[in-house]
Amino acid sequence: MAHIAVHRDDLALESPTLVEGLPGVGLVGKIAADHLVETFEMTEYASIHCDGLPEIAVYRQGDQQLKPPVRLYADAERELLVLQSDAPVSPSTADEFATCLTGWLADNDVTPIYLSGMPAKREGTASMYGVGTGDGKALLSGADIGAPTIDGAVTGPTGALLHVAQRQGLDSVGLVVEADKQFPDPAAARVVLQDGVQPLAGIDIDTEVLVEHAEEISEAKADLAAQMQQANDESTSAKPLGMFQ
């Protein structure tokens, strides 16, 4: 049965912000989510058991305890939740997954920040813009995050999450950043964290490690990036709208 299993009822959260980290273009969301969990030493808070998730068990080096592939981590002091994912969501079941997760977010007064990379060849700092549902536009304005400069669409499971939020009239924000289509992109993840998550969530995030250890991070995520390349239709991405016409 689809559900979110909370393991830490002792953590009190009031209207927290969620940062979503599903794998996608440049692994922007994955890198950003992993960085937040590690930097703030966040507590494993819940397991996500929604339809559409692969039935696999994940383990970590030096730890014999198995974990589900998609989990929520919490920082009660910062009123922050992070969705950490070690596997893509199948596009054929993305709507079921999005409906399951969105229902829990709505019931717990959580405002989600959804992350997506837009394939781009760039020189210098990656550009980022924001979109929203419900009061998301006001949140973006308050954080001084600009509007899209082109017509486009967010695809994959993150697109499904934004679609369900829009359909249900819930508050949410989507951040779209230029990212490398082929390789993990820590620099793009840094832009999302510094210019997007930081002002939206009202927290300070040290992102220097994403610059200092960019090559190591890219190498560590290379296998997952290759898997996402092979299963391109499962990847969260933002694309110009003309590609759908």
Describe what this molecule looks like in 3D.
The structure is a single chain. This protein is an alpha/beta fold and 245 residues long. Helices cover 34% and strands 27% of the residues. The chain has helices spanning 28-39, 94-107, 136-142, 156-168, 186-201, 208-212, 214-220, 222-230, and strands at 3-6, 17-21, 43-49, 58-60, 63-67, 70-75, 80-85, 111-119, 128-133, 152-155, 172-179, 237-240. A hairpin with a 4-residue loop joins strand 6 (70-75) and strand 7 (80-85). Helix 1 crosses helix 5 (186-201) and helix 2 packs across helix 4 (156-168). It is globular.
Topology:
Layout: E1 3-6, E2 17-21, H1 28-39, E3 43-49, E4 58-60, E5 63-67, E6 70-75, E7 80-85, H2 94-107, E8 111-119, E9 128-133, H3 136-142, E10 152-155, H4 156-168, E11 172-179, H5 186-201, H6 208-212, H7 214-220, H8 222-230, E12 237-240
Parallel strand pairs: 2-7, 2-8, 8-11
Antiparallel strand pairs: 1-3, 3-6, 4-5, 6-7, 9-11, 10-12
Helix pairs in contact: 1-5, 2-4
- Strand percentage lies at 25-35%
- Biggest sheet: strands side by side, in what order? 1-3-6-7-2-8-11-9
The Cα radius of gyration reads 16 Å
Number of strands: 12
Order of helices and strands: EEHEEEEEHEEHEHEHHHHE
The computed structural class is: alpha/beta
How many helices?
Answer: 8
Looking at the structure, what is the overall shape?
globular
Q: Largest sheet, if any?
A: 8 strands, mixed
Low-confidence stretches: none
Give the integer mean of the pLDDT values: 89
Helix content: 25-40%
Distance between the termini: 37 Å
